[in-house]
Description:
alpha/beta; Rossmann fold; five-stranded parallel β-sheet; two-stranded antiparallel sheet; 50% helix
Amino acid sequence: xxxxxxxxxxxxxxxxxxxxxxxxxxxxxxxxxxxxxxxxxxxxxxxxxxxxxxxxxxxxxxxxxxxxxxxxxxxxxxxxxxxxxxxxxxxxxxxxxxxxxxxxxxxxxxxxxxxxxxxxxxxxxxxxxxxxxxxxxxxxxxxxxxxxxxxxxxxxxxxxxxxxxxxxxxxxxxxxxxxxxxxxxxxxxxxxxxxxxxxxxxxxxxxxxxxxxxxxxxxxxxxxxxxxxxxxxxxxxxxxxxxxxxxx
Length: 248
């Protein structure tokens, strides 16, 4: 029920929806003074959420500090959270915009930093299909010459909480002991880390797939950008999830 409810109500977090609702109300009401106020609020919200400046400021504050790996230490396993591949209408699987998670998994193994790679991800769609992300990702890791014995897959999880629960069971069953690297997108790391640690899995954060600018401020950061508006959807979802998971 929690999984279904979170999916159904997710659209309520989108800033574009807030602006749209305010504009619709402004068109309906007859009081000119209230109409003007609603239009001003809608314009301010649209500007605030569409300029990169505010997104970057928040994103940097939200980010978990990237760990400095010990060059003399080999980590037992890199836990790669799913969400970086999808399936099209013809049933063909492909890497999406979060594919940096996969790239980091391959790099960590091929450079000898980790002994094994655990891919955690089933099907996070509200309407479940046959696609199991971790199962498909394993085929891609094999293409990149990772040995079958170095790959662990957990293909039942639908969200981050289940990522942690099922990964813990698999690690215990496989006898893989810490230290573990947790690899996921920068925007997702803060929430993912507390979930894994609350489930009793000590992890070292290894964020990737940065959605925010890593450069210094430029005047272009004050110019509205559609990508900034879309990325706020991602961060607002994480904020709500973080608060709920921490409270639970």
